């Protein structure tokens, strides 16, 4: 069964892409991997990011006495890392940093997210002249090597040992929206619906003529779903980095909604 979505998928895509252009001279350097005789396939055309490249930047919203700048870069070990510079915490308290895949409203006071990743803490009274560095994941790890689904960096107070407030388990001190300059890491990825088949009988939602999402039906198998849409399992995982608890779980859960759009991963 197939249904058509309205303009929501497109609108979200515009939101995610807004502000992603880099200043002149600051575009991440990337090369294309050369395919050998035995290396044909989508991976052969993926960009290779040079170590030391900054792929995202943002400024912490000055609030609650917290300010600073953040960037995500690829280090010499091919690991993406968060770098926090010029961090200022007016009351000298210890803070912690969390990544979230959701956009945070300007007046939000709590982190409410269906995907988040805690990175680490900064002790009270830190030396603000020394950047803080937190590893995120390698080019073969988080987001299948493309962390651009991460929308915001969140700063919150380190828990003081008391029972957390169940209505606001992660209070916000500040946050930074990320402007990504990462090139298209899957330039050959195209999703097309070939129709229902054994192990792929679920509901498809379209955005125009393009599959936007798929709801898993009883008896479905993830490999069969991938085949239906002309992609492989790795590309299913790439399109669904927020799958919980493990994005690379090859089990298709009845009722699970799989994203099929590159713009809304």
Structure notes:
There is one protein chain. The chain is built from three helices and 15 strands. The strands form four sheets. A five-stranded antiparallel β-sheet has the order 9-6-5-4-12, with no helix packed on it. A four-stranded mixed β-sheet has the order 1-13-14-15, with helices on one face. The chain has a four-stranded antiparallel β-sheet with strand order 8-7-10-11, with no helix packed on it. It is mainly beta and 265 residues long. The two termini are 22 Å apart. A hairpin with a 2-residue loop joins strand 13 and strand 14.
Secondary structure: helix percent:
under 10%
Order of helices and strands: EHEEEEEEEEEEEEEHHE
Structural class designation: mainly beta
What is the β-strand count? 15
How big is the Rg?
A: 20 Å
Characterize the largest beta sheet: strand count, sense, and whether it forms a barrel: 5 strands, antiparallel
Q: How much is the average pLDDT?
A: 84
State the strand order across the main sheet.
9-6-5-4-12
Write the layout of secondary structure elements.
Blueprint: E1 2-5, H1 8-17, E2 30-32, E3 47-49, E4 54-59, E5 66-74, E6 79-89, E7 95-100, E8 116-122, E9 132-138, E10 152-157, E11 174-177, E12 179-180, E13 203-207, E14 210-215, H2 222-228, H3 233-239, E15 257-259
Parallel strand pairs: 1-13
Antiparallel strand pairs: 2-3, 4-5, 4-12, 5-6, 6-9, 7-8, 7-10, 10-11, 13-14, 14-15
């Amino acid at each position: 069964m197939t249904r058509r979505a309205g303009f929501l998928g497109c609108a979200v895509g515009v939101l995610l892409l807004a502000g992603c252009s880099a200043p002149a001279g600051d575009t991440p350097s990337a090369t294309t991997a050369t395919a050998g005789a035995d290396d044909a396939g989508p991976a052969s055309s993926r960009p290779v990011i040079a170590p030391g490249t900054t792929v995202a930047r943002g400024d912490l919203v000055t609030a609650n006495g917290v300010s600073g700048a953040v960037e995500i870069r690829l280090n010499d070990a091919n690991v993406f890392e968060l770098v926090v510079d010029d961090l200022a915490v007016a009351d000298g308290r210890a803070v912690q940093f969390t990544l979230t895949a959701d956009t945070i409203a300007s007046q939000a006071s709590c982190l409410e997210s269906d995907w988040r990743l805690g990175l680490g803490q900064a002790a009270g009274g830190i030396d603000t002249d020394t950047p803080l560095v937190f590893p995120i994941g390698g080019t073969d790890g988080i987001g299948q090597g493309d962390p651009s689904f991460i929308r915001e960096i969140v700063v919150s107070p380190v828990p003081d040992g008391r029972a957390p407030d169940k209505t606001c388990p992660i209070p916000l001190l500040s946050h930074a929206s990320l402007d990504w300059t990462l090139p298209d890491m899957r330039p050959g990825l195209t999703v097309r619906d070939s129709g229902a088949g054994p192990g792929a009988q679920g509901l498809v939602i379209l955005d125009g003529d393009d599959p936007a999402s798929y709801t898993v039906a009883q008896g479905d198998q993830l490999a069969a779903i991938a085949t239906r849409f002309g992609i492989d399992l790795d590309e299913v995982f790439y399109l669904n980095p927020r799958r919980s608890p493990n994005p690379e779980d090859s089990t298709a859960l009845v009722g699970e909604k799989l994203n099929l759009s590159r713009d809304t991963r």
